[in-house]
Write the structure tokens for this entry.
Amino acid sequence: MATKKPTELRNDAYLSDTLIERLDLWYKEFSPVTPTENKILSVIRGDQGYSVDSLAVLLSPEAAPFLEEMAVVAKSKREKFFGNAIKIFAPMYISNFCSNGCLYCAFKADNRIVRKQLNREELLAESQSLASTGIRQVLVLTGEAKRLTTFEYLRDSIKEMDTVFSSVAMEVWPLKKEQYEELVEVGLDGLTLYQETYNREIYAVQHPYGDKSDYLWRIEGPDRACAAGIRSMQIGALIGLDDYRCELGAMAIHLDYLCKKYPDVEMSISLPRLRPIVNSDLQVDHPISDRLYAQILLAFRILFPHVGITLSTREDERMRNGLIPLGVTKVSASVSTAVGEHTDKASDEQFDIADERSVDEMCSWLEANGFQPVLHDWHSKLTRSVG
């Protein structure tokens, strides 16, 4: 008997059928806009917030000459909603085994790289080493190899890390609602789940095999997590796989949908650009210049002033230093994309790091530029029963 795919087992009323309809309509009707100068300035200077049309205006090539004015408005909105606080976190890879074939990822199953998964002792040592840098907010990452990196392994790892860090988030494969509920109980605080690309055709090409090829199961993951009681939710798209205007328009629809459906969940986005990966000559079909990347970030800060924006070390030091004042609310530091890096590196990396500053170096730069680096702003244990 054939095993059913997750989407064939859907029966929860909270799942995002409305979202899917909106996205399908977006791709059916999408066409680039050519706004006038008056229209661009009215969106930049207005306070109407997000709409499909307003985002299209700010992402248009015609808006590029108004980048400085966008920066002024974006900076003021970041200060109004987030003050001078910048959260600092670190990713921690605990396994890079994977059964998926994602073309843009070094962890893909048929890529010949050094693989490793931390055991309990290694996990604790790695956690303590990372915590010694001052990090209290950690993002747990794995590949997707469910027979080896089981849900039980994931649950036990989060429970162990909860004894070391005050806030534990994760970036792994999409789970069932009851699994998210179980992880929240043992210490999971936040979830990062990128759709990678919202274009179904490109998604199918980029994910030729493995569970990740199930588009609907992945896109409904944030719904299941939010319904399960997750405190913070981060989504994103991998910029460079599709026309940025179409891709980011779809991501904004998803973000707007989640913000309205789950107003009690802290929402944030990340805007990762494709980076070089091990053993790959991956071509970026839709490259994004630094100036255009800045325009994208500013557009989202202006139209989603209450939403957090994370800037990863995929961007180099120069870019991060320039963009942090204009809209960023969270950055990573002391970053490695290899498993076991903080104690005894034993695997290949997922992608190249562009900003290698340590926690101390990141904090020093922030303080020197008038920001308050925040390493600890939440303790998950205070919101759940102990024992």
Notes: The mean pLDDT is 89. The CA atoms of residues 112 and 279 lie 8 Å apart.
